[in-house]
Write a structure and sequence with these properties.
Blueprint: H1 9-40, E1 42-44, E2 53-55, H2 57-68, H3 70-87, H4 94-112, H5 122-148, H6 158-181
Antiparallel strand pairs: 1-2
Helix pairs in contact: 1-2, 1-3, 2-3, 2-4, 2-6, 3-4, 4-5, 5-6
């Protein structure tokens, strides 16, 4: 029996409960970080007819999804940015944002963790971010078609969406690299 650790059912239950609690707290923290980066670090593009909000929420969403996977990416993106819409005068956008950003986070995290990479492959991380970002642009385009009732006005938001993604990548990739090097993750 040397070297073998024996645990009771009670100890296993405590470990499992602590793990669930830690997972819940981490998911809530990631959601809060996405919300704060969206709400408090943003500016409006002057050339967009509607919307055109540039924010750092994508930076945090990219980091959450790549470092922690699709589930946490989906939850933090959907709830973090959906909550932003609700409290910032963009409530009509909230249902669209919830779905678009939830799927975006799931896609990024799922691709980044593909084949056991766990977000360690730059190639898979970037592929996830690019596919998730294309989904975001298409999703918001059709959301704007529904909201504004035409096919042309939503085109003015695309430059802002692309700018938001590029800024998210420029700031997010170094953040992801730094997080992956810590012992916390």
């Amino acid at each position: 029996m040397e070297g073998k650790v024996i645990t009771s059912k009670k100890e296993n239950a405590v470990i499992k409960e602590n793990s669930k609690t830690k997972d819940l707290v981490l998911t809530a923290l990631l959601t809060a970080l996405v919300f704060v980066a969206t709400k408090f670090i943003n500016f409006q593009l002057p050339f967009s007819i509607h919307g055109g909000l540039i924010h750092l929420g994508n930076t945090m969403l990219f980091a959450a999804a790549v470092v922690f996977g699709g589930k946490k990416g989906a939850i933090s993106g959907a709830f973090g940015m959906g909550l932003f819409d609700l409290v910032s005068g963009w409530a009509v956008w909230a249902p669209f944002t919830f779905v678009i950003r939830g799927v975006m986070g799931w896609v990024i995290g799922t691709i980044a963790h593909r084949k056991g990479n766990n977000g360690d492959s730059f190639k898979w991380n970037m592929l996830g971010i690019l596919i998730g970002s294309v989904w975001m642009i298409i999703g918001y385009y059709f959301a704007e078609v529904i909201i504004y009732g035409n096919w042309y006005t939503p085109l003015t938001a695309i430059p802002g969406d692309i700018t938001q993604i590029v800024i998210g990548i420029i700031l997010g990739v170094p953040l992801i690299t730094a997080l992956k090097k810590t012992k916390v993750v």
